[in-house]
Request: fold
Amino acid sequence: MPSSPKNSENSKDSFLVALVRSSIILSSLDRFTKYIYTLLQNGFFGFLFTGYNSSWKSTLSERYSKTKFAAHEREFRYGTCRRIESSVIIAGVSYIMKFLLCCRLKVFGAFLSSFGLYTAVIAFIGAVIHNNLAGLPDNSSVLFAVALIISSIPLIMSKKRLSEALVSSNIGRFVLKVTGYSESEISETVGDGGHINSTFLVGIICGALTYNISPFLIFGAIVVMIAAYLILVRPELGVLALFFFMPWLPTMVLAALVIYTSICYFIKLFRGKRIFVLEPVDIMVTAFALMLFFGGFISLSSSSIKPSLLMICLLCAYYLTVELIVTRSWLIKCSVACVTSAVFESLYGIFLYFTGGGYSSQAWLDSEMFTSIGGRAVGSLENPNMLGEYLILIIPVAFAMLIGRGEGMRRTSAFVSLGIMGSCLILTWSRGAWLGLMLAVVVMMFMWHSRSLWLVFAGIISLPFLSSVLPQSIIGRFTSIGNLSDSSTSYRVHIWHATVNMIKDNVWSGIGIGEGAWNRLYPLYTFMGVEAAPHSHNLYLQIWLELGLFGLLTFAAFIFLLYSSGFTLFSRLSDPSVTLRSELTEDLFIDAGKQDCHSGFSVAGSKTQLRLSCAGPLCGIIAVLAQGMTDYTWYNYRLYLMFWLICGLASAYIRNGRAMIEAECDVPEDKNSGYREIMLDTSKRKKKRQTERHGQK
Reply:
């Protein structure tokens, strides 16, 4: 980077270091966190679970390589890998995908046209046979058939192959960027496959099946098979799908996606095409997962086993994120995916709010106290507080994209996204979400730049004047916080009182996870006539009650280590001697020598941008933790999944930033960092694979 911008940036960034050094509390906390990291990395857990210490790693590998078990392990692993690579399934699937890439677009058009035509024919025949609506077919099937026929017209008229269309069109190039494929990989596919007659026959068969099976189900099965193949080749796409489809897919479908992506990741890991690095913060997540396991099996209710296993399964999304989303390009893709999904969810929530669907003023609002509020936006999450928590998780990520991703359309799209999500957040009328977002904004200003703090002070000074600007409905809703005359507030206070009494009798062990254990014990502790309650309406009380004191401490330790690693990175970025590359080092975490990043997702070498990319998900977590004081939203498993996805995204951003610094700096051999070792090892594997491919050719 040029010297003058770097010097100015370093002078601006020195505020954080000066604040830490001038404050006894912050400096002590900084030294304490470094001490804890040293103990964890150099102690037993670091020796057992990490590969940071190069001397330990070399000594252990040298000793292990001399054992008979190591020889058998290598023989088994490499033999199994060869069998997998040469298996009929892998070869067959690869041949099918290459065959499809070689097919001309008119072949796919023939399939869609025959599928749509015979879907409409079967719909009319079924209507006549069953005398449905005086012989009229199902409207959804007919509309689906018409859509297929219309979409087939431009495909039939085209003379290009699928590979040529993907490379030459803007939509195709966008799909390639999202899926992580390079244009050279697709362009290398040559040949001519597929015939119109055979595909037309396949379309007829699919159309005939619609007599007993929904056409949407058949088409969805085709899409699922294609997605399954893509995730098998690149497990990162499974994580990307989790970020995007979280608000829309059912919980069990999301759990199945987590399991399938985990299987694909372990296959890649076993074949040596992915890496596995476990940090102290990951150990805390593992400990929390163990707490969830014991909270399910050591419970007052036998029904706790199912939610315990489901929560552990969804928690695995954290590990998938930190182990798979390791390059800058995939980090940006996941950020864009979750922001885009949140925008669609916000539009859906706004639509339902103004059309009168999906919300009830009686169920979610004290209509006697808030007469000017007609209802609350809920979206697909079916609860305004759930929607509010989801939005405050994503809004800081969008804000980081707004102020850190350059100029032009990117910044404009981020600004529009913020406006849509902010409008939907207001319409949720969730006071806890509002407070959480306000706290996140303050922290974001602090993490962004010292000069941005004046915005915080200006906001504080302007608070008394907001009453003349904002509508009275918003002012009244916000100022009602803590008002016990509000039925929602008094309801929560009474439940908290009962929950505290339950915790006093189950401090260490907890009562177990899920509604079964809660419903079995809560009626014995009801307070002030609140006979029924689904949960404690407080995240921390609920964790303590379900998992015991050690479960709460484990969760607190995870949060502490996560933010400690983040602020440690910020401290390193504030060091004037630390420099960054203007482009991403492609040798880090490369899959089998294939290029994993593209120019459209290139990283800027600015320290401020790197800090913002880490601060976005961290501030989203802060907002949720603040809202957790007034509500417990983890009973919605989709939000529980999203929380751990954002935690994984934050941790992945921090590790990527640390890797970028260490890739630029001269790292000593004995330094407790495995990123340089990973980079060197990956680079060697890349050269070896390239040599092998040239030899095969």
The two ends are 41 Å apart (CA to CA). The mean pLDDT is 75.
